[in-house]
């Protein structure tokens, strides 16, 4: 079993819809959780960062962490065509290396 | 401010040649990381530097891969005797603490 599971299937939504992405993990030592956005042929860009369990909101983006279920989510409200990108979850347990999911390609259709 | 920069942005080489990839981290970031991103594989950790030392090089896939960091700043990832399976995007990241890592644009390596 991989440390981080993210269903890599592409996701197409109409503009204005809510995008819901999630990852599960197996390592209970993980305590730092991140979402990165990666545009085509660019490096990953840090989008959201959460420490331990809880919710964090930043504009149209909400990140949720449920450590008891080993489950994290990212919600994008009022999605825009500019949100079309690959979204990667990542987590860290204090050993400095990030463990990544495989990423979800999101396409927001105008 | 300036982000993480990497060079070259693209590299095409022949099988068996050596390549060097360069990373300039964000100024003041003490930690530096190398990852590899292959199609269908996601991001794979290669090596971590704290200052000039590499306490974790467990992700390097073979002894053909090596990395160094000088002056607590610039890092070079070297791949000797490249193989076709080395073709990937090599990403560098830097951080101040252990939480948030900031990535460069990557070097796209193609081994023919």
Please, what is the average pLDDT of chain A? 93
Count of DSSP strands of chain A: 11
Largest sheet composition of chain A: 6 strands, mixed
Helicity range of the residues of chain A?
Answer: under 10%
H/E series of chain B, N to C? Answer: EEEEEEEEEEE
Helix/strand class of chain A: mainly beta
| N-end to C-end Cα span of chain B | 37 Å
Radius of gyration of chain A: 13 Å
The gross shape of chain B turns out to be globular
- Unreliable parts of chain B: none
Quaternary state reads heterodimer
In short:
The complex is a heterodimer of chains A (110) and B (112). In chain A, 0% of the residues lie in helices and 55% in strands. With 110 residues, chain A is mostly beta strands.
Main attributes?
A: 110 residues, six-stranded mixed beta sheet, five-stranded antiparallel beta sheet, B: 112 residues, mainly beta, four-stranded antiparallel beta sheet, 11 strands, 0% helix, globular
Describe the structure.
Chain A is mainly beta and 110 residues long. Chain A starts with a strand and ends with a strand. Chain A contains no helices and 11 strands. Chain A has strands spanning 4-5, 11-14, 19-25, 32-38, 45-51, 54-58, 61-66, 71-76, 85-92, 99-100, 104-109. In chain A, strands 2, 4, 5, 9, 10 and 11 form a 6-stranded mixed β-sheet that branches. Chain A is 0% helix and 55% strand. Chain A is globular. Chain B has 112 residues and is mostly beta strands. Chain B is built from no helices and 11 strands. Chain B has strands at 5-7, 10-13, 19-24, 31-38, 42-50, 53-56, 65-69, 75-79, 88-95, 102-103, 107-111. Chain B starts with a strand and ends with a strand. In chain B, 33% of the residues are buried. The A-B interface holds A 32, 34, 36, 41-46, 49, 51, 88, 90, 92, 94-103 and B 4, 31, 33, 35, 40-43, 45, 48, 50, 56, 59, 91, 93, 98-106, 108.
């Amino acid at each position: 079993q991989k440390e981080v599971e993210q269903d890599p299937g592409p996701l197409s939504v109409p503009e204005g819809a809510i995008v819901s992405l999630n990852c599960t993990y197996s390592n209970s030592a993980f305590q730092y959780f991140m979402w990165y956005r990666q545009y085509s042929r660019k490096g990953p860009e840090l989008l959201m960062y959460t420490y331990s369990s809880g919710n964090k909101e930043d504009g149209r983006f909400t990140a949720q962490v449920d450590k008891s279920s080993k489950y994290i989510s990212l919600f994008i409200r009022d999605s825009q065509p500019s949100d079309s990108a690959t979204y990667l979850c990542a987590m860290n347990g204090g050993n400095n290396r990030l463990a990544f999911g495989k990423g979800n390609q999101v396409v927001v259709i105008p | 401010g300036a982000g993480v920069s990497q060079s070259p942005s693209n590299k095409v080489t022949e099988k068996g040649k050596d390549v060097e990839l360069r990373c300039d981290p964000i100024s003041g970031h003490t930690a530096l990381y190398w990852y590899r991103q292959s199609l269908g594989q996601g991001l794979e950790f290669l090596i971590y530097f704290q200052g000039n030392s590499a306490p974790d090089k467990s992700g390097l896939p073979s002894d053909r891969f090596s990395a160094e960091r000088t002056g607590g700043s610039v890092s070079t990832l070297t791949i000797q005797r490249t193989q076709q399976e080395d073709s990937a995007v090599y990403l560098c990241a830097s951080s101040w603490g252990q939480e948030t890592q900031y990535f460069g644009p990557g070097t796209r390596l193609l081994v023919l």
